[in-house]
Each structure stands twice: as structure tokens, then as C-alpha cells.
Amino acid sequence: MDRLMALRLFLRALDRGAIAAAGRSLGLSATAASRTLRELEESLGLRLLDRTTRHVAPTEAGRRLAARVTPLLENLDAAMAEAREMHEDATGTLRIVARRSYALRHVVPRLAAFRAAHPRVEVDLALTEQTGLVPGSGVDLVIRLGLPAGKSFVGHRLASGRRILCASPDYLARHGAPASPDDLLRHACLAYRQEEEAPVWIFTTPPGRREIEVTGPFRSNSGEALRRAALDGLGLVLLPEWMVGEDVAAGRLVPLLEGLAAWPERYEAEIYAVHARTERLPAKTLAFVAHLLARHSAE
């Protein structure tokens, strides 16, 4: 017996004054409705309804049960409606974990427009330089490098994986520009910090793949820190187009070895917004992903 259904049927019978009418309102035949109420009474060991051929009335036990159960079911219905609303309408708290450098340049500046369009959504944003993060444990959306393995997640591409080797005009005036990847061995290179490993930059050249173990005066696990150091003339940097594209366009940084695809080891991937694969994704998550994609496609 579905006890929740039986309780709803019991209250509906009191409201309608008849078991058959109560059953019809819940999609049950008169026979099924009568059987369900008998099973409820048997499970409780007491009689809840006084029955006549045309009418039912609550017993003393039935009145007391109805008084206790009615607010409980009303609260349950309200909670279920709120849960449905959160899926159908953009509302609630959206928890995001995002790649720090990308979020500061391309997510945070878009929050005001998102909130204007969806004022019932609150955004909880955590920034990280970690890789390999996935949604879960209360996190609705992850903005990360690359797609996670497996079929449990859905990824939406936000930015390309193209990297630009560049340096400030001041640095190039003092040290000249490299003519080939091998020339980087004689330059100050600003690189992502690797635990107990020398940083490696990888180039695709006509002869094939070329790996250069670079050195320089500054390393960091923050792309924004590396960008700032390059702008200040400390050396060459190899960073995503989404991070330094505006600097290159404005002449603050000068692109180098433009005919060669290049990337720092372990940092070749594109930027994705990733959420769990589910039949009914909350509207708040869908709305935020759509907002990011709309701005990305317009750029």
C-alpha cells in the first residue's frame, strides 16, 4: 500500500464526502479507492470513516488524524512545488567552481547582466587554479580546462585552446625576438610552476613536435600573475588567447613565432563549462550556461 496516496485519498474523501468521488479525483476506481482506505484502516488498527451508501464521515480517530496530517501534506506539497519551480524557473543558489584566471576575465564581468536577467538566482563562485575538477558535492557547475572523462558529465565549450607566445615591446627592445623555438633557450621565459619538474613548452614545427625546457626569473601557478609579469617586461610568456588577446590587439604584448602552434605542457585544453548529465537540469544552471555561451558566440 502506498501510505502517502492512502492519506491523500482519506483527506479527499472527507472533503468530497464520498469515497468514489475522492477516488476519481486521484485517478482511482471506486473499488480501488475503497480497498485502499480499508488497507489504511487495517494498518492503523482502527476505523477512520463511518460509511453509508451515499456518504462518509470521520470517526473521532479520523478527525484527529486529519487534523495532524493535513498541515504535513500541505507542507510536503509546497516543498515539492518549490523543487519543481527550481527546475522550471531560474531560482535558488547556483554554486560554481571556476578556473581563476578565466573567471576573473570572462565570468565575473558578466554576473551583473546575468543577475539583471535572472534576479531570483544567487551565485556562489569559488575560484581555483586546480585542474580535473568535476561537479558534485553541492557544486552545480565547473568551469575548467578540458572535458572530464566518462559519460556522467556534459561540457559546453567556452573558449579555444589556442595559446599565444608573446612579450612586451620593452622586453623585445632589450633582448630581441626569438626566430625559432630553440632561441627560447636564450630568453627569460615566464612559465607555469610544475611540482619538482622544469616547465616545458611544446611547439609543432615542420620537422615535427619540438619540446623546449624553458627557464626564467619567474614561475607561478596563476596565469594572471604570468600575464602581469610579461606586461612588466620580465620575459616571454605562453598564455591562452582568451587571456592575452586584448593585450596583443592593443599592442601591450607582441605575438611571437606566429606560424607555430604552441602550448605549455599540460595546458593545451580548451575551456568548458561542465555540469552533471541529468534528464532535468535545474533552470538556474541552464540559464547561466546559456548566458556564457551567448556572450562567447557574440565575441
From TrEMBL:
Gene3D superfamilies: 3.40.190.290, Winged helix-like DNA-binding domain superfamily/Winged helix DNA-binding domain. PROSITE patterns: HTH_LYSR (PS50931). CDD domains: PBP2_CrgA_like. The keyword Zinc-finger does not apply. Residues 1-59 form the HTH lysR-type domain. Keywords: DNA-binding, Transcription, Transcription regulation. InterPro entries: LysR-type_TF_proteobact-type, LysR_HTH_N, LysR_subst-bd, WH-like_DNA-bd_sf, WH_DNA-bd_sf. Pfam families: HTH_1, LysR_substrate. Belongs to the LysR transcriptional regulatory family. This is LysR family transcriptional regulator. It comes from Roseomonas nitratireducens.
